[in-house]
Every structure is written in C-alpha cells, then in structure tokens.
Specification:
Layout: E1 31-32, H1 36-56, H2 58-66, H3 68-74, E2 77-78, E3 83-88, E4 96-102, E5 109-116
Parallel strand pairs: 1-2
Antiparallel strand pairs: 3-4, 4-5
Helix pairs in contact: 1-2, 2-3
C-alpha cells in the first residue's frame, strides 16, 4: 500500500479483476449458460457471430473446426456440462454449427439447435 494513495488497496485483493480482452469479441462479458432454455434463447446470437467469423477469418475457422467448445470457453462462454457443439461441413461453403444435449446415463444426443448461414440474392 502506498502512503499517499487516496484509496488504499490491498495488493493481495485487487478491487476488480478483468478478464483479458477476447480476441474475437463474441461476447462483451463472460456468459455462463445453465439451462437448455437459456442455451436456446441466447446462444444463437453468439454462434451467429462465430459463424460469420468462420466465413471471414481462416485462422478462426480452423480453430473452431478443431474444438468449438474450447474456442467458446476462451472467449468467456461456458456451456452446461451436458451440452456439446459440433462444427459440420468445415470444408464447404455452407458450414453448420450444431448444439446437442446429452441425456444423463445415455449415449443419445438430442439436437437443441443448429445454425447455418445462407446467402440469398434477389432481383
């Protein structure tokens, strides 16, 4: 502690801890999902940003294709333990992100949602 500080701060307990700025800014603050309804309601917006980045950034696309959940966790997004994400068709023009929920004591996966960008032209 400094003798001439206006507000003394204990160095072992800083007043606020900030997470490092994420590289891709999928979310503005850490997000922890706890329920399927929460995942269905809020995750599509985040995954929509990720899908757009996949089209624009080859390095991000490669990272996301290898381990989508690790990429989301690095961005501060935590999914429920029974939720998994798959990145399908990584080498095509129409990649897809699928979110599954695994039932307890079962190998069966229930698809919760999927996202796929589609470009359309009108005349």
């Amino acid at each position: 502690m400094s003798g001439n500080a206006l507000v003394p701060v204990n160095p072992t307990r800083p007043p606020a801890i900030r997470r490092p700025a994420s590289r891709y800014n999928l979310v503005s603050e850490n997000v922890t999902f706890t329920t399927r309804e929460d995942v269905r309601e809020r995750l599509p917006d985040i995954l929509g940003k990720a899908l757009a980045l996949i089209w624009l950034d080859k390095k991000f696309a490669d990272m996301f294709a290898r381990d989508p959940q690790a990429v989301l966790e690095a961005e501060g997004i935590v999914l429920p333990e029974n939720t998994s994400i798959e990145f399908q068709k990584p080498g095509t023009d129409r990649p897809r992100i699928v979110v599954y929920e695994r039932r307890p004591n079962s190998n069966f996966k229930l698809r919760i949602l999927y996202l796929q960008l589609v470009m359309m032209a009108g005349r």
